[in-house]
Amino acid sequence: MLRLLDCPSICKDMKRLNQNITSRYVEAANRLNSRQSRRRIVAYVESYDDVFFWRAVLSRFEDSTRYFEVMLPSRSDRLERGKKAALMRLLDGSVGQDMIACVDADYDYLLQGASPSSRAVLSNRYVFHTFAYAIENMQCYAPSLHGVCVAVTLNDRLAFDFVGFFTSYSQIIYPLFVWNIWHYRTGHYGGFSITDFLGVIELGKLSAQNAWQLLQRLQTKVERMVNSLRRRHPGVEAQLVALRSELATLGVSPDNTYMYVQGHHLFNNVVVPLVKSVCARLVRERENEISRQSVHATQCRNELSCYTSSVTDIEATMKKNVGFLASPQYGQIVDCMAAVLNTDKKPGNEV
Q: Residue 273: which pLDDT band, with cuts at 50, 70 and 90?
């Protein structure tokens, strides 16, 4: 019997068909189903990690009339990743009621159309973004980090003030962050790039023990760079004041700037090292407690073995952290999606 993959011409036709799947194609497929069937909406995302995040977001918009299928876009026989691949659907005119793109905002949201990629993201109602820089920022939402520590260690003692730390961290880096956005808004990004910004706000080897001391050092570094930029660009203070005011309307404040810095930097260089340090302390406390309360050595070994097997991986737990559902940025995503998706459901717009 002839297998499908044994016929090159058939495979080629299938790849060509896959390349031309658009919102209209999905809409036509939906029309083949009965009127009682739920409408399928394809949601293209940037990477594997994004699938879980956007599933958590989109699930609230599923009902008896529609459901979402979150997936990575593909071209030919290559699996493409990243915002560019997701936006290819937009550039091809493919997104619509039955096919949406869900991407990280990066700086595109804050640039408000000042760059081609920003205009591409913001100009199409079927391209949704995180409002925060990336999903990593959402996973690092400060009020949720104690819950992450509890999930990892099964120890509910409040061992570190994550909210206080990231509020202070944000307040320190905020003036320099505004300068960074100004450079990108005005086309001067070569003078102070994201890489330059991240280099200044690098904390070094961070732990729960030295976190607050490192913030003091960070304050000095930021002030030095801000003074340097002021000397380099005299007479732009009025522009910076206006920019700070506009950023506030977009959701950026001195207290939450960490949600808008590069997500990988925040996740890998700040939050994960800090959470690992806190979790290590909590695990030691729990192990010491077991040792003190055990009646004999055998019980101690058994309890410690049971506890050790219950401790989970920190990074994996953070990637599944849904504490961002309480964040203001999540509220912005929901409001944006509701304005589009619920409008599409009005009488006369049904599939």
A: very high
